């Protein structure tokens, strides 16, 4: 394949993978009247932010956005904290049963939410977590993938640093949060990105746990919206675009990082 | 590392690591291990939220064997898996081969191909419903304005499955592409140099060097894509709701409906156990393939 042919192929693939996203963005900028009039134009003739204004005007949407943000941010903070702690314990201590614990934690991947929908619902009900955002924050916060990534990364931290700190009289917790955590920043960033994306995009957990409309996350609200008979497309499209924005921001900031992390971490799962 | 093995080094501790592990272990125990066990138990009961529960042994499983709607959704799921996984793997490998190089600007292309992977299934579903709509979609608009007939992408049984498969491939190619790119970039350059000196063409290089070298990656991708296809739910929920009729009703949706719409929690649990076994076996195979990664050495 020559150079031009290769470039054309690459651009064609950009079209295939990017056009659908671009198309909802363009459509969301069309006034309601233009959305269904033929002939269709790719670009909006009279671009407007009216649909966005409409979407943001309804207090519900703001609430869903807030719920999603709250869930994604709080869950990510918890995930980072406990996964980094676990990764440290599994890589820098020697004790009986360590490898068994690690194996069991990884083996929980065998039991995704899809196969325990029913008992999870009953458990959350019994714990009083139904219709609570905490019911979708805490259970998925412990991630085998995060533990795995943290452990792999920490195995590269030299033991001598830890030993030196112990000789200086540093306690275990002090060593963890003053020496290990600063050194683990790259892996913390990686886990943070993944966790935020997972939680922001999550549908199944809220679908099982949340029934009250006030507690809907964006994904739940969007799915509910599209399930109605008469879909208000102009509003739905703008809501969809808004709900992508946080991900795009995360993606642009961490793009280089992200693809790298994916290649090292993604291979496992 | 030898020092580590010495008894009574400062790394031999028990209390500190267990405290560090406690939060994760607690969550896994409460929200995965206990539910898994209680799911197994519930599958042996006639269990409903409204009507209480009674032990019925293997009755649910016997009913399952005779349940044509269960077989239908299992069949739908398996057909979807068997069609999606090879297409997705081929698509991801194909794209990876195009952008596995190191030339300037190539990561921008990779970024574009990766983008759909970042969207939630709900958003992927909404976007494609907008594109594939019978009356409103741009695709049918293009087809009809060039003289074709409207195609019922999501509302005719045959097309709905095909659309679903295509959209899955579209949405996940980027994820597996990244794995393949990683595998391709790990091939030592000396192999290519040697092949070039021997006068190998591009196809020969692919067949004799790239393909054998990325086989491990490909196996992981195949297993992972299979697991994910068995778990499919969200995309269907937004695109077709399992329809038209039951043409795209898959296992997870059946479990959900039996449990929460029919309030037959015990029976739904027996269906879930079937899925648990399938995913368990596949995940186990995945572990075996990655064995080296999980051991400590």
CATH topology of chain B: MetI-like fold
Tell me about the biggest sheet of chain B?
2 strands, antiparallel
**Assembly annotation:** heterodimer
Q: What is the CATH class name of chain B?
A: Mainly Alpha
- Specify the CATH architecture of the largest domain in chain A: Orthogonal Bundle
- Individual helix count of chain A: 14
Largest interface: A-B, 96 and 99 residues
Provide the helix percentage of chain B.
over 70%
- Rounded to an integer, what's the Rg of chain A over CA atoms? 23 Å
Describe, in plain words, how this protein is organized in 3D:
- The complex is a heterodimer of chains A (269) and B (297).
- With 269 residues, chain A is mainly alpha-helical.
- Chain A has two domains: 1-48, no CATH class; 49-265, MetI-like fold (Orthogonal Bundle), CATH 1.10.3720.
- Chain A contains 14 helices and no strands.
- Chain A has helices spanning 3-28, 32-35, 50-57, 59-92, 98-107, 117-126, 134-137, 144-154, 159-167, 172-183, 185-201, 204-209, 218-226, 233-265.
- In chain A, helix 13 (218-226) packs across helix 14 (233-265).
- Chain A is globular, with a radius of gyration of 23 Å.
- In chain A, 44% of the residues are buried.
- Residues 264-269 of chain A have low confidence and may be disordered.
- Chain B has 297 residues and is mainly alpha-helical.
- Chain B has one domain (62-294): MetI-like (MetI-like fold).
- In chain B, 73% of the residues lie in helices and 3% in strands.
- Chain B contains 15 helices and two strands.
- Chain B has helices at 2-5, 15-42, 59-66, 68-99, 106-118, 121-132, 138-145, 157-185, 189-197, 202-213, 215-230, 234-239, 251-261, 265-289, 291-294; strands spanning 45-48, 52-55.
- In chain B, strands 1-2 form a two-stranded antiparallel sheet.
- In chain B, a hairpin with a 3-residue loop joins strand 1 and strand 2 (52-55).
- In chain B, helix 4 packs antiparallel against helix 11 and helix 11 (215-230) packs antiparallel against helix 14.
- The N and C termini of chain B lie close together (11 Å).
- The model of chain B is unreliable at 1-6 (pLDDT under 50).
- At the A-B interface, helix 1, helix 4, helix 5, helix 6 and helix 9 of A face helix 2, helix 4, helix 5, helix 6 and helix 7 of B.
């Amino acid at each position: 394949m020559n150079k031009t042919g290769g470039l054309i192929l690459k651009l064609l693939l950009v079209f295939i993978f990017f056009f659908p996203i671009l198309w909802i963005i363009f459509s969301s900028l069309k006034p309601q009247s233009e959305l269904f009039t033929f002939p269709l134009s790719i670009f909006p003739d009279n671009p407007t932010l009216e649909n966005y204004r409409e979407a943001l005007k309804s207090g519900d949407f703001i609430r869903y956005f807030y719920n999603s943000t709250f869930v994604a941010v709080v869950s990510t903070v918890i995930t980072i904290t406990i996964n980094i702690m676990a990764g440290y314990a599994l890589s820098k201590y020697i004790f009986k049963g360590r490898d068994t614990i690690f194996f069991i934690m990884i083996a929980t991947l065998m039991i995704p939410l899809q196969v325990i929908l029913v008992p999870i619902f009953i458990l959350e009900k019994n714990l009083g977590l139904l219709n609570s955002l905490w019911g979708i924050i805490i259970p998925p916060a412990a991630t085998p993938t995060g533990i795995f990534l943290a452990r792999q990364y920490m195995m590269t931290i030299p033991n001598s640093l830890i030993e030196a700190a112990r000789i200086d009289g540093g306690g275990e917790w002090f060593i963890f949060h003053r020496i290990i955590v600063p050194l683990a920043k790259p892996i913390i960033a990686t886990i943070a990105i993944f966790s935020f994306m997972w939680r922001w995009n999550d549908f199944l957990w809220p679908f099982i746990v949340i029934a009250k409309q006030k507690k809907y996350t964006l994904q739940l609200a969007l799915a509910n919206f599209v399930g109605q008979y008469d879909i208000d497309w102009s509003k739905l499209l703008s809501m969809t675009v808004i709900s992508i924005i946080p991900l795009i921001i995360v993606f642009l900031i961490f793009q280089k990082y992200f693809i790298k992390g994916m290649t090292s971490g993604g291979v496992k799962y | 590392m030898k020092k580590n093995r010495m008894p009574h080094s400062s790394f031999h501790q028990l209390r500190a690591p267990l405290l560090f592990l406690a939060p994760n272990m607690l969550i896994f125990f409460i929200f995965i291990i206990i539910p898994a066990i209680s799911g197994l138990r519930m599958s042996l009961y006639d269990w409903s939220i409204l009507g209480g529960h009674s032990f019925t042994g293997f009755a649910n499983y016997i009913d399952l064997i005779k349940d044509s709607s269960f077989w239908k959704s299992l069949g739908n799921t398996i057909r979807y898996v068997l069609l999606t996984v090879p297409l997705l793997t081929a698509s991801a490998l194909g794209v990876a081969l195009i952008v596995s190089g190191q030339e300037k600007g190539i990561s921008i292309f990779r970024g574009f191909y990766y983008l759909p992977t970042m969207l939630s299934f709900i958003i992927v579903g909404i976007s494609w419903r907008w594109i594939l709509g019978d009356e409103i979609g741009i695709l049918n608009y293009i087809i009809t304005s060039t003289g074709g007939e409207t195609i019922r992408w999501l509302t005719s049984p045959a097309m709905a499955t095909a659309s679903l498969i295509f959209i899955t491939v579209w949405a996940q190619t980027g994820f597996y592409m990244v794995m393949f790119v990683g595998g391709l970039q790990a091939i030592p350059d000396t192999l290519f140099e040697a092949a070039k000196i021997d006068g190998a063409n591009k196809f020969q290089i692919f067949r004799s060097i790239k393909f054998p070298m990325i086989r491990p990656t490909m196996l992981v991708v195949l297993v992972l894509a299979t697991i994910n296809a068995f778990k499919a739910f969200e995309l269907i929920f937004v695109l077709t709701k399992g329809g038209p009729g039951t043409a795209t009703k898959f296992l997870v949706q059946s479990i959900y409906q039996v449990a929460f719409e029919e309030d037959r929690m015990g029976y739904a649990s027996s269906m879930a156990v079937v899925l648990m076994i399938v995913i368990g076996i596949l995940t186990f195979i995945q572990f075996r393939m990655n064995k080296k990664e999980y051991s400590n050495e």
